[in-house]
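Build the 3D complex.
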Amino acid sequence: MRVKVLEKNERSIEVLIEGISLPIINAIRRYAMTQVPTMAIDEVLVMVNTSPLFDEILAHRLGLIPLKSDEALEKYRSPEECAECTAYARGCENCFAYLRLEAAAEGESVTVYSGDIVSDDPDITPVYKNIPIVTLAPGQRLVVEMRARLGRGIEHIKWSPVTVATNRYVAKINVDRSRCDLCKRCIELCPRKIFYIENNELKVRNEMNCILCKQCERSCPKDAIMLSWYEDKYILRLESTGVLKPERILSESISMLIKKLDELHEQMNKVTVK
Amino acid sequence: MGSLSGERINLDTNARWTLIEVFFREKGLVRQHLDSYNRFITHGIKESIKDESIITTNIPGLRVEVRDIYVGEPMVREVDGSENRSITPMECRLRNLTYSAPIYAKLVLCEGNVCGEPEEVVIGEMPIMLKSVKDRTSKMPPDKLIRIGEDPKDPGGYFIINGSERVLVIQEDLAINRILVDKGREGTNITHTAKVISATVGYRIPIILDRHKDGTLHLSFPPIPGKIPFVIMMRALGLETDEEIVLAVSPDPDIQSELLPSLQQAQAIATTEDALDFIGSRVAIGQVRESRIERAKQLLDKYFLPHIGTEGTEEIRRKKALFLGQMACKLIELVLGRRGVDDKDHYANKRLKLAGDLLAMLFRSAFRGFVRDLRYQLERSRSRGKRVKLSILIRSDIITERIRHAMATGNWVGGRTGVSQILDRTNWISMLSHLRRVVSPLSRGQPHFEARDLHATQWGRLCPFETPEGPNCGLVKNLALMAYISVGMDEKIIERLLIEKLGVMPAIKVLEMIRRHRIGAEELFKYSKVFLNGTFIGYHRNGAELAEKIRRLRRKGEIPHEVNVAHYKTEFIDEVYINCDAGRIRRPLLVLENGKLRLTQEHIEKLRHGEMSFNDLVREGVIEYLDAEEEENAYIALNPEDVTPEHTHLEIWPPSILGIAAATIPFAEHNQSPRNAYQAAMVKQALGLYAANYQLRMDSRSHLLHYPQKPLVQTRMLDIIGYNERPAGQNMIVAVMSFTGYNMEDAIIMNLSSVERGLARSTFFRTYTTEERKYAGGLEDRIEIPSPQVWEYKGAKAYELLDEDGIVKVEAEVKSGHVLIGKTSPSRFAEEYRERGIGTMRRKDASVTIRHGERGIVDSIVITTSQEGYKLVKVKVRDLRVPELGDKFASRHGQKGVIGMLIPQYDLPYTAEGITPDLIINPHALPSRMTLGQLMESIAGKVAALRGKEVDGTPFFSEDIEDLKKSLLLMGYPLDGTEPMYDGRTGELIGIPIFIGIVYYQKLHHMVADKMHARARGPIQILTRQPTEGRAREGGLRFGEMERDTLIGHGAVALLRERLLESSDRTYIYVCELCGHIGWFNRTKNTYECPVHGDKGIMHKIEVSYAFKLLLQELMSMLIRPKIILGDRFELAER
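Done.
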């Protein structure tokens, strides 16, 4: 097995994985989207809302604000534990982070941003300060209290730590130079500029960039281009909403998968031993 | 100006668009209604009472003169008598008031020659059209409008009657005073016929001239029964000799000879007197000759061709004879094949009635009622010998109520219904489209195929797409964008102008000259006939020259721009039609002279800088309006590059042939025509921001889309319509593929995660209203929490959300069964109780509960007083509507579908970049429907999103699709709009690249939450005891005939019996074996009784359907005796 990081920054990670079958990589991708727990506002207690937005719209908007969750994973109880918690209705500190938003417009209209949210827990704050929540006209006021909890993307998309999670194939482009008559049609039609001509020969560069759109293959009048892909080479890419670092999402996703498999393993052992 | 006209101009798309922008900035979208209403309020109302300006009474000498009449400022009279002059439209909407103004009249009471002082009295109230001259909001700046609760962009053009917004829909009518010839119907005695509807203020009389098989001409018109021979009528009108009559028809011997049978037929009646006697004998049967003649004269003066005149002078009768002569002439020309039949569907032969005309009709009738009452009051008060004082005798509520009743119900004078309709406020487009709707009075029951067809003259006047499907197809139409309707002017002015300045010779004079042989009949052949508003007024030496001269003068501004002229010339026909009446649909066109535009670059620049207006262009003759008639003489180029020297006009903006709804379609010219028609209908059902003041409004039901978006693929018209500020839809990423198969048969797959992020969310509002009425005898309703003692008390749980004032709290969550407004009413039989002396009078619960099957959150409450001074409570309840399985969506290309499946993001296919679609439509939706526009929109939308700038998809002037494809390629995407995609469930590449792009989708107001329904047991109807029908009544689901047939086919008897009897209206009756009558059980005697045999009858209990029992009793009520013969259930085998 070989892993190579193609790209990594604050928001995204792209790795080339060789030697693992597609279903496993896809499972990791899906786990990143649905199983990695994050913090999100789940309950909103509206005290005053004279804004033009209805309570339910406001609550929906607040819920979609990404909250920093790096510390939360250790600090707060997981959704499963929470579900079994008897103190749930009253609210316990191990489950919920408490946040508050207060705003009023006096002389002029005021736009309330995610940065105006005050959190009791300094670890749980909005990732971005500039998400507009509502614009208040003069005289309008907003006081809400919010409870955030850990959740998973499978329950509601607001808990998903990623916006984009893909794995894609790596192209294998074969040019039959004996057939190619250098008509350049493939060069014209390729959206990723993969082809070029050098020394009267059609050549290929940056195969990794190819998205397998088949424009070249289909447009070639001589059938000189053969498009295929590597069977055990995949590129996995995750883009974070900002709640967790992308590499953390990846490792959490894998460990969630392992945890599930361990559990399965354990259960299987129990069943088969009997 | 002369210096301007020489310049060259490069009239590109943007320059043409400038003209459009200026046009709409100046006129808005409902100008027709406003102009029509304004004219009525300022002039029409004064004209409409002219012939009733003196109110005479039976008391000799006593009369009232109406000196002046005018409409005041909007105002409401409150119950305490005070005048609320600061009334705003919003207050009227909320308080269920009528936005109206008093009508003042200056009345003078006269007796003999002595007249009193003029008194100014209020004779009634006139509803005020919003944004008309009388409406204060028409002059308010936007910030002031916002302060008084109006949407600053609201176009007006409607009324507020008892709190509801009402439109007077434009009515299409056959043009009046125009002679239309047609072939007679097969199998009748009539070969050809000429018809004219003669109408003037207050009159509308159809006159028909028929040619019978024997060649004679006969006239029929309503006041006279039967038909009158043509020649007799001419004699009655004062043309005695045959020569005169023949000349009045035509100087052409061929036509004259066609009159021979008619002349022979009328030989016996040779004088005017005899002719009048002949006509009089039809109506005044059995009276003396003198009174017969008198009666005939009266009839002819008043009811025959009243548009020419109703005064009985010699000259007017002669003019009427001439008109009749022209009718005959036109008819004979048809007979001789010199002209074809007139096309009734040609828009030159149609007129539109707008709000002003409709109100004028209504007001005239109401005013007549008022006059009748005033006359009666005058006579009564005089006969009692009292001193007559006008202000006491005036009853202003007659006019007020007549107008308000008609406007509230839509039942107009003349028996027309549906004239006033509640303004459709589903979204911005539906409102605007409603204000520009045109309905035809033709019955929807009959086929009328020709009338429904799109007519060539509708080009640029009426939208070719926007018409409903089904019975109203082609009868309900919508104005095209630049269509403008003439307001009309005094035709006397034009007539004088024609005769005095333009060399038209009056017909009577010409006739006189021929009789005296000053000009020969042959000479007349060369002349052109001149018609003004359909009436023949005279001859002109050269029709072409006259038409040209009129056009020239009009372009110079010396003749009003509303005057249109058309010259028809064939081998036999040479006629000039000049029109200046109201209700013609006209459209502006650029004037070409010798193939050169009169428009210059300087004009465009000035327009752009606001130094010039559209009207200035019209005044300078750079642009002129043509009606359907004048367009017959025009040769119009579509685009500047098509212009040749023969062209007379250039189209300003070809897409303006579309109406408001169809203008929303990008790339419309690439779609199959019916698809555009479907979209034009569906755009009116889309949810969006329907008005900026939605929070203040209390519409009985409305929807609001949470995150409406401007379409990424625009049409230029969207800006002027205001769609970009009040949109109704969202840009969605749409993939065309099958995927799970849950998008078969026009279903769509929607991205559940997108929905969770807020895609296509909307809120539904419903307003519940009640009033605290006061009744006679000191009884009154009370809004309160009802006590458990009241009748029909709903149980404490239902009232738990009520505040102490009996009204729910704001933001309370309500479900069906909950009471929103607690109210008790006095018992209906309270009076009886009191008479009987029963002390405890129980009140009845009249609370307003939430509708069955609905739920929501109380959004806002209005507590106010109505016009009558009753307490009025309105409660608005909102309900969040998240897209769910079965909700309906549509693109802008007539592609509608319901959600078949909601799939989360992680299962959906994604592109190499990780884009997942919001929507997956099935590829089968495309080939047979040929909505290429949608595919182009998809590519264009993708380009727009990538380049960060909208794409222009205006029909005929859109950005080139090839360019769009190229830019897609440059930005790194395959140029055909496809992308390879991976299946989210397996991570595998899908074999074929998927077409994916951005399409604007609309959420339509058919939602599952409003429709889903089922019941086990529930309410039944009282009369038939069968289950009720419909969701609102918690009704059963019908087990219909066809379902019944299936059970019969299967022989499933027990199930059949269970469905149709046991679970429906099973009942038991008692039947007497002796007589077969239905009997009953007498509880006091504990016996079964028969109506015939009393307790001696042998009664059997029978199980029947209640409907059958009902049938028996209905038969009995009609004196039919049904008899039930009973048999044994089991035959005993004989042994």
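The domain at 665-760+885-1003 of chain B is CATH 2.40.270.10 (Dna-directed Rna Polymerase Ii 140kd Polypeptide; Chain: B; Domain 6).
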